[in-house]
Amino acid sequence: MRSFGLRDVLGPIMVGPSSSHTAGALRIAQMVRELLDAPPAEVRFTLYGSFARTYQGHGTDRALVAGMLGLHTDDLRIRDSLQMARDQGVTVSFRADPKSRVSHPNTVDVWVRDANGDELTARGESIGGGAARLTMIDGLSVQITGEYNALILYERDVPGVLGHIAGTLGEGGVNIGSVWMYRSRRGGEAFNVLEVDGPVSREVREAILASPDISRMRFVPADGLGRAPDAEGLGEPAMGPDEAEALLPTVDFEDASQLLLHAEAHGRTLGQSFMAREEVCEAMHGRPVAAAERYLDRVLNVMRESAYGPLDGEVRTMGGLIGGESRALSGLASGGDALAGGVDARAATLAMAVLETNASMGRIVAAPTAGSSGVVPGVLLAIDEAVHPGREEMRDALACAAAVGFVVSRNATVAGAEGGCQAEVGTASAMAAAAAARLMGAGPRACLDAAAIALGNLLGLACDPVRGLVEEPCQKRNAAAAANALACARMAVAGVRSIAPFDEVVQAAKRVGASLPMELRETALGGIAACPSCRGCALG
C-alpha cells in the first residue's frame, strides 16, 4: 500500500470494459511476458472463478493475449489482439474451469512456450482496479505485483550464492527491498525472488549470472502501464527519495479520519491533503508533483472524450445490449421539458455515455473501476457545463474523489468480484459526491459526509452483469449513482450529516460485500442476470 495512490484510484487509463477482467488480466499476461527470454510462440490460458464464467463478455481473452503481445492498458488495439496473435504466428488457446477452488475469483494459469522453445508456467490474480499479482512461477509460490523491479533467480543451494547476488547488487547501487528464498532440498535446486528499489542494469545482471551456481535469471520490471506519465520538463522532485521515504509516514493516511485531521490541521481541502501524500510518493519515484497534476489533466481529457463521443455518433458495444441510450436522454432534455433536463439529468446522460464507450472497448478512466467509470465524469462534467469551474477547481475535485476512493481501496475493496456492485458503483458514487460537494464549496468534513451518505445509500448492491457483459444493468446503475451523488452532495452542503462517519460506512460496506453470496459478485449467476429473459445466456 505504500505507493498506492492517485493512478490506482483514478486509473488505470484503459480500454474497457472491465478493470479487473480486462486491465488486470492484461497486466498478468504482461508480467508473464517479461519473464520470457524470447517472444511467445504458444500460450495456453486456464481461467478460474469469475474469470472462467465471464471472460469473453469482459474481453479477458483479448486482454490476456494483448498482454502477451506487449500492449498496454490504454492501447485501442486490444480489441483486435486475437487477430494480431494470428498474424504474428502466436498460437493461443483458452480453457474455462469454473468449478475448481482457487484463492481469488479472478485467477488464470498461463503456460507459454517461447520462440526459443523454453517453457514457463505461472499463475496470476487480478485483485481489483486494474492491479494484479503473480502468485506462482514454475510451480513455486511468489508474490510479484509489478510495484518494484523483481529478479527471479534459479540456482544451486550452496553457501555464498545469496551473498554473491546481494554483493553484486550493492556494488551496482541497487537496494534490495525484500527477498523470498525457496529450495527443493538441502544442496538441491533453489529459487530466489528479490524486489529492488531501482533499475537493474544489464551489466549488473550479467555479473550476477557470472556465478557458475546460478543457472538462470528472469527479470520483471516495475509496472509501466501508464502509472507514471512523462515528467520531462516538469522540474525536479520536491525532495530526494530518502527524504520522501522518511516523510511518507506523516502523510500515509490509513483512513478518512487521519485524512480529515491532516486537512483541518493544515487548512487544506481533502484533495490538497491527498495530493500532499502524492507529492511524497512522486518524489520517492524521482518525479515532481507536477507529474501528478499533468496526470489529473489527462484524466479529465480522457473522461471528456469517453463521455461526449457516444453523443456525437453511434457506438458498437461488445454484447449489443446497450447503445444509443445517452443520445436518447440527451434528445429528451433538448426538447425543453423542465422535468427532462437539469444537472442531474445531464450527469446521468454523460454517465451512460461513458459506459457505452467502455462497452465498445473504447478508452476510459477506471474511477475506481471500469464498470463504474461513468459516475465521476458524469457528475463533474455536468457541473462543469453548468457553472464552469476553473482548471484548479476541477483538479481539486478530482483529487478529492481520489482521496475517497483511496480510503475505500485501502480499507475494503473496489472489486465487484469481492464486494458486489456496491464496491464499484457505490465507491464511485461516494467519490463523485465528495467531488461535487467540493465544487459547491464544502469543507473536508462535509465532503466526507457526502461520501458516507452516497455509499450508505447503495449498500448491498449486487454485481450481476447480464450475459457476463459490463453493459446491463451496469449502465443504468452508473446513471442512478450519478444522481445519488449529486443528491448526497446537496445534503452535505446544506448541513445534513451522515449518521455514521465515512470510515464506519466503509467497514459496513466491507462486511456487506463479504456476506453477499457468490452469485451476486460478478459471476452473472444471480440478480438481474438470473431473470428468465437472461437465464442461460452467460458467456464462457
From TrEMBL:
Enzyme class: lyase
All copies of domain ACT, residue ranges: 150-222
Essential cofactor(s): [4Fe-4S] cluster
EC number(s) stated in the UniProt entry for this protein: 4.3.1.17
GO molecular function: 4 iron, 4 sulfur cluster binding; L-serine ammonia-lyase activity; metal ion binding
Keyword Nuclease: no
Alphabetical UniProt keywords: 4Fe-4S, Gluconeogenesis, Iron, Iron-sulfur, Lyase, Metal-binding
Pathway assigned to this chain's UniProt record: Carbohydrate biosynthesis; gluconeogenesis
Enzymatic reactions: L-serine = pyruvate + NH4(+)
InterPro entries: ACT-like_dom_sf (IPR045865), ACT_dom (IPR002912), ASB_dom_sf (IPR029009), Fe-S_L-Ser (IPR051318), Fe-S_L-Ser_bsu (IPR004643), Ser_deHydtase-like_asu (IPR005130), Ser_deHydtase_asu (IPR004642), Ser_deHydtase_bsu (IPR005131)
Protein name (database record): L-serine dehydratase
Organism: Olsenella porci
Gene (name only): sdaAA
